[in-house]
């Protein structure tokens, strides 16, 4: 894997590629170039408080058939945070992705999103169908939605979460430090119920050392509650407008809500779903099975369309 950076209008995204690029940064004046072959692109979009290394277990298997790019979303991994007055509004990720897509060569692009990345991928495919050949959604489906009756409480809770963030920032600055990398790794293993070996690449990219302490790289504003969540009708319209084939990959012990009708699978024009061993991070727990499903899905594209 090779580190790279992508220059967007307001910030720089960091990422990992399966190939080495020329120059230090990809920008509109220096777009991305590939070897002279016609491999399609798999563009990986990670989940909330994860980073590009979440997909490291898939790279070795898939690099023979695809050009692979995994990005760090703003405020995650090695990417820049958003401006100080920005609290990571969901639809801004679509703007980021549209700018990133403009930097890629003109060839087939498949979006592979996990969790938050899956929600962004499904919305993007609906809004910009000409950009996407197919979408793989790992433990994620339609954008989060809820009854309009929750709107007042959501606004109240969202504003309160921002106030708590500001108070914590005044008290702790960048947050409490950890005594070692191993402490950070242990904390993440406890949260995700995965092994240290499975999570080490992700946590390495998610932390940094300053003096004797270790800190998380992700922007603490990511923990603030959203001020808005769309209604089910809005989510249904978005999902029903996806024209390309969609593959949903779920962990057998993952989020049970994703297996329910309201998750959005039945709103798709061309959707299929499979299960693999593992939980919410099933692509880390069962990388071989996930890779096999991705390869089969893309090779059967003409049958699914």
TrEMBL record:
<dbReference type="InterPro" id="IPR050266">
    <property type="entry name" value="AB_hydrolase_sf"/>
</dbReference>
<dbReference type="InterPro" id="IPR029058">
    <property type="entry name" value="AB_hydrolase_fold"/>
</dbReference>
<dbReference type="GO" id="GO:0016020">
    <property type="term" value="C:membrane"/>
</dbReference>
<feature type="domain" description="AB hydrolase-1">
    <location>
        <begin position="40"/>
        <end position="287"/>
    </location>
</feature>
<dbReference type="Pfam" id="PF00561">
    <property type="entry name" value="Abhydrolase_1"/>
</dbReference>
<dbReference type="GO" id="GO:0016787">
    <property type="term" value="F:hydrolase activity"/>
</dbReference>
<protein>
    <submittedName>
        <fullName>Alpha/beta hydrolase</fullName>
    </submittedName>
</protein>
<dbReference type="InterPro" id="IPR000073">
    <property type="entry name" value="AB_hydrolase_1"/>
</dbReference>
<keyword id="KW-0378">Hydrolase</keyword>
């Amino acid at each position: 894997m090779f580190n790279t950076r992508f220059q967007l209008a307001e910030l720089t995204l960091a990422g990992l590629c399966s190939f080495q690029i020329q120059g230090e940064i990809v920008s509109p004046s220096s777009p991305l170039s590939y070897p002279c072959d016609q491999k399609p692109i798999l563009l990986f979009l990670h989940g909330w408080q994860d980073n590009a290394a979440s997909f490291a277990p898939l790279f070795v298997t898939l690099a023979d058939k695809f050009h692979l790019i995994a990005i760090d979303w703003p405020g995650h991994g090695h990417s820049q945070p958003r401006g100080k007055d920005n609290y990571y509004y969901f639809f801004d990720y679509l703007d980021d992705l549209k700018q990133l897509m403009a930097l890629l060569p003109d060839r087939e692009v498949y979006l592979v999103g996990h969790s938050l990345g899956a929600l962004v991928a499904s919305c993007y495919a609906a809004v910009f169908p000409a950009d996407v050949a197919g979408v793989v959604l790992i433990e994620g489906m339609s954008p989060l939605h809820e009854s309009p009756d929750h709107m007042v409480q959501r606004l109240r809770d969202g504003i309160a979460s921002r106030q708590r963030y500001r108070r914590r920032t005044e008290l702790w600055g960048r947050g409490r430090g950890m005594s070692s990398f191993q402490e950070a790794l242990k904390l993440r293993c406890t949260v995700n119920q995965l092994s240290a070996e499975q999570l080490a690449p992700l946590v390495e990219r998610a932390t940094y050392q300053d003096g004797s302490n270790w800190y998380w790289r992700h922007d603490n504003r990511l923990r603030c509650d959203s001020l808005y969540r769309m209604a089910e009708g809005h989510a249904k319209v978005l999902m029903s407008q996806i024209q390309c084939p969609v593959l949903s990959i779920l962990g057998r012990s993952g989020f049970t809500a994703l297996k329910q009708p309201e998750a959005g699978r039945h709103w798709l024009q061309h959707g299929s779903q499979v299960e693999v061993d593992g939980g919410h991070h099933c692509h880390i727990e069962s990388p071989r099975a996930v890779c096999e499903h991705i390869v089969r899905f893309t090779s059967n594209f003409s049958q699914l369309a």
